């Protein structure tokens, strides 16, 4: 028998995609806060104590990548990415639907290639033993996390396909 805790109803009422959206958005926000905090501490230390944080550049770069890839889930799901929609007013009906699907397929192919390339980069980084200079952390671990977030973003892209009801 399942115990009913404070989050049992919350998690059971949500689909897997909603849980992924929730987790990715919280990770994205947390990475932004960490990035801002590290940047502030680095500049503060540099200006007032003439001693910057040595690992700040690496942590900010990692946080930027985490924020980008974890935030892509929401961007794809809501179809809120940057796009040129000047021709949407001109092409309506079947032509508009065809163009929407054509651009969607190109987007899926491109993003699938991106996921694959990040995965391959993680494998090569592990093979060569790349390590961050100040953190001492192996780079393939971060790249594998980025590949995971990119895969989650690809899933959100695949489940939100173009609307066929263009007027």
Automatic annotation (TrEMBL):
<keyword id="KW-0472">Membrane</keyword>
<dbReference type="GO" id="GO:0022857">
    <property type="term" value="F:transmembrane transporter activity"/>
</dbReference>
<keyword id="KW-0813">Transport</keyword>
<feature type="domain" description="Tripartite ATP-independent periplasmic transporters DctQ component">
    <location>
        <begin position="35"/>
        <end position="158"/>
    </location>
</feature>
<comment type="function">
    <text>Part of the tripartite ATP-independent periplasmic (TRAP) transport system.</text>
</comment>
<dbReference type="GO" id="GO:0005886">
    <property type="term" value="C:plasma membrane"/>
</dbReference>
<feature type="transmembrane region" description="Helical">
    <location>
        <begin position="96"/>
        <end position="120"/>
    </location>
</feature>
<keyword id="KW-1133">Transmembrane helix</keyword>
<dbReference type="InterPro" id="IPR055348">
    <property type="entry name" value="DctQ"/>
</dbReference>
<feature type="transmembrane region" description="Helical">
    <location>
        <begin position="55"/>
        <end position="75"/>
    </location>
</feature>
<dbReference type="InterPro" id="IPR007387">
    <property type="entry name" value="TRAP_DctQ"/>
</dbReference>
<comment type="subunit">
    <text>The complex comprises the extracytoplasmic solute receptor protein and the two transmembrane proteins.</text>
</comment>
<keyword id="KW-0997">Cell inner membrane</keyword>
<comment type="similarity">
    <text>Belongs to the TRAP transporter small permease family.</text>
</comment>
<protein>
    <recommendedName>
        <fullName>TRAP transporter small permease protein</fullName>
    </recommendedName>
</protein>
<keyword id="KW-0812">Transmembrane</keyword>
<feature type="transmembrane region" description="Helical">
    <location>
        <begin position="140"/>
        <end position="161"/>
    </location>
</feature>
<dbReference type="GO" id="GO:0015740">
    <property type="term" value="P:C4-dicarboxylate transport"/>
</dbReference>
<keyword id="KW-1003">Cell membrane</keyword>
<feature type="transmembrane region" description="Helical">
    <location>
        <begin position="30"/>
        <end position="49"/>
    </location>
</feature>
<dbReference type="Pfam" id="PF04290">
    <property type="entry name" value="DctQ"/>
</dbReference>
